[in-house]
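Exercise 7.
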Amino acid sequence: MLTKPKELLSAHVRSEVPCPRIALAVDVLRRFGRLRFRATGGSMLPAIAPGDLLEFHRCSAEALRRNDVVLLRRNGGLVAYCGRRRSGVATRR
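Solution. The predicted structure, written as tokens, is:
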């Protein structure tokens, strides 16, 4: 499905038109309940390194636990974020 997973998070789109790869990733997560891709960037080292295979599962905010890594939409892209605390969990509107 995703032919170039390494490029998934590298697209920084600031327009209202979503990047086709981001739109595909969101659609896959909605339809199938899970999404796998390789991490890019090193902002979550040492927990997640560039090239690590990540798998996200769709769940409710109530199902999240402390230190779970969540996938958020930001500036037209997708960003993996590690929640250090349970309160204030970001949810999709």
